[in-house]
Amino acid sequence: MNFIGKTQLTQFTAVDFFGNFIFGAVVGGSIYNGDLEITGFTIMLLMSVGFMLFLNYLSHHILRIRAVTIGESIPVIKHGKFLLDKIEQKRRKIDMLRILSQLQCLGFSSFQEVYYAEIQPDGQLAAIKDKPVLPSEIIILRGVFFDTLIDEQEIDKERLELLLETNRIDVSAIFLAEYYEDKIFITFNDGSEKTLESYSIKK
């Protein structure tokens, strides 16, 4: 777990479990194959570990692969109203009875108290109560735009790109850009930071 960058089982993704099946097959095969030499076993073990690292690299750096293997947050309530289109699209992943149970564990008595709620990729529920400020979102990571999150925040991507260009900011130099309370908090690859007002980029 530590070797592939995980600290607990709940962080395991489909890629991790697939890689673990391969790893288990290598170890199990070596136990029941008396003709397999230690050199061959070591090579196969290193290949399986390398394959796992490669898959994890792809799932963390290519957004389309990440969406399939790790998943994306699913908003279910926004501005105190159910997002029925989202719920219908992801109906196989959404159990409303479980969501209510999770809300009650978080201290909510009813859906009526929820201003915003989303199901996170690990299945946990994040929710806020009667607060007109939505939780922050990462809209750029390592120079790559998160189009889905940008759209959910009702940000016009072309205006966002123009804002960055106006402030002479190269997207490839951005490590992380966080959108919160109509501001963009940018951390660059060299560790420096910059904050931009983002009223002009809303749709």
Automatic annotation (TrEMBL):
InterPro entries: DUF421, UPF0702_alpha/beta_dom_sf, YetF_N. Residues 61-179 form the YetF C-terminal domain. It is found in: Cell membrane. Keywords: Cell membrane, Membrane, Transmembrane, Transmembrane helix. It is a multi-pass membrane protein. The keyword Iron does not apply. Residues 1-58 form the YetF-like N-terminal transmembrane domain. Gene3D superfamilies: bsu07140 like domains (3.30.240.20). Its main location: membrane. The chain crosses the membrane at residues 12-32, 38-58. It comes from the Bacteria. Belongs to the UPF0702 family. This is DUF421 domain-containing protein.
